[in-house]
């Protein structure tokens, strides 16, 4: 890299004042500076739709037709977007993906689950089932951040749990059913796939999943507070069977109630109406433009720009080295030690480019970039130019 004439220093540490002085020219900046991995960019058009519905939808009863028709739109739209096979249904509940983990530990896991644990979010679900007194200790395959364990058949488990996209590290896993069997036939194992940072941005085979669940504030670029799950007939049957067995379940986490109420386009308690509408609007936007193939291609294009830039950069490199697992939705980029990524993220933030910080607990010199379908590929291109501009001034 060459030092630009505007470089305030000739190398070495940059004092705070110089950092604060770095102003990225307006012509280089992205049109929209939101690159967070959750909550992620909400398209202004979706917020405008919310404003348009300010008086006929917001502030009206979730038991009445107005809100229920939005819930119905959302359920239909998600089924279309995810190409739900016959018999699969869309279930809604409150509390985000975190609540779904608790709900699944009561309503979908019979006795013992198997988990792939490859980062913050997948390890949290593991912690839920490990702590549940009514379940046996889970089976866990762990791997280092940036890598992933294989999806292997494990004897004596009835659920296989993993993320489609591990948001903390930028590793994706193509959903599969655990193959072969040593003792347990795969049909007795339900696959529970966390798609919070994947749904609508990654193609997959829906026949490989029994519960494909997510909160809508990441890949679906809406807002938080809800969980949405596409469940297979096998998962619905599992929910019915566990419920009939009389296992005590907190009412708020009762998947049988969620299943029954979702069929009537309702939730057990009051949902976040704004989130429902934002999500239905975003899903409609994706379906109207060509569905999952179109949406996934946008993110793929964004990621080719980001990773292509990082691979030729002298100061940056993709963290996930295996191309088969490198996420097109969450880009984790390591930086050369002479450039402090936290300082870089701070300068970007001061210039209106926000939430590029690496995942705190990972503790790497890293930026993490959300490239969900709502993000314009041209804005990712602009982001790389802005990083170069700042880097030339921080580490000339
Ligand atoms: C953010 C995230 C969650 C938690 O979602 P909440 O809506 O905050 O509960 C779960 N799983 C993954 C993969 C996530 O990225």
Please tell me about this protein's structure.
- With 396 residues, this protein is α/β, with parallel strands linked by helices.
- It has two domains: 16-43 and 291-394, Aspartate Aminotransferase, domain 1, CATH 3.90.1150; 45-288, Type I PLP-dependent aspartate aminotransferase-like (Major domain) (Aspartate Aminotransferase, domain 2, 3-Layer(aba) Sandwich).
- Helices cover 36% and strands 13% of the residues.
- It contains eleven helices and twelve strands.
- It has a seven-stranded mixed beta sheet, sandwiched between helices. A three-stranded antiparallel beta sheet has the order 10-11-12. The chain has a two-stranded antiparallel ribbon with strand order 5-6.
- The longest helix is centred in the last third of the chain and has 22 residues, at 291-312.
- The chain is globular and about 65 Å long.
- The model is unreliable at 1-12 (pLDDT under 50).
- Residues 38, 96-98, 121, 163, 167, 194, 196-197, 215, 218, 224 line the site of pyridoxal-5'-phosphate (PLP).
Task: Fill in the keyword field for this structure.
396 residues; alpha/beta; Aspartate Aminotransferase, domain 1; Aspartate Aminotransferase, domain 2; 2 domains; 7-stranded mixed sheet; 3-stranded antiparallel sheet; globular; binds pyridoxal-5'-phosphate
